[in-house]
Design a protein that fits this description.
Length: 143
């Protein structure tokens, strides 16, 4: 799959005609103004679901080099802002968690599938708390 050098999105015939460039430029301008998905959908005359899909795609296509953020810096930002759900989900994808791997991945899984852990007679909230404690122990000295 080739990528467009102008915006980093997947290249296609529609994309080459400039349709997506113009739409995405409008969406990026609306994002810069601080508008959310519903406001963007109204401004462009598209459904909310389509606007959210486009927003998700735009966010996924921004390379980490352009945003000047590493996964670790994003994780530390989540931890500093007390956004533990996002921090656990992100950290669970890391390859090198050492002795904290089990607690962090179980905590993230308990966020995604609390009913499964209840069926196993385990408290999802306790697993999440253990995952957060492991995150603090592993990365707490960097914040």
């Amino acid at each position: 799959m080739t990528m467009c050098p102008k915006c980093g999105m997947a290249d296609s015939p529609t994309h080459r005609r400039g349709v997506l460039h113009r739409r995405n430029a409008k969406i990026r301008a609306l994002i810069a103004e601080g508008q959310n998905g519903a406001e963007i959908a109204t401004a462009l005359g598209i459904t909310r679901q389509r606007a959210h899909t486009i927003l998700r795609h735009i966010r996924q296509t921004i390379p980490l080099e352009q945003s000047n953020q590493t996964k670790l810096s994003i994780l530390l930002g989540h931890m500093a802002s007390q956004r533990w759900d996002e921090a656990l989900k992100l950290a669970a994808k890391f390859q090198h968690l050492g002795e904290h791997r089990r607690e962090i991945t179980r905590g993230a899984d308990a966020l995604k599938h609390p009913e499964f852990y209840r069926q196993l007679r385990k408290d999802p909230a306790a697993l999440i708390a253990e995952g957060i404690a492991a995150l603090k122990e592993r990365y707490g000295n960097r914040t």
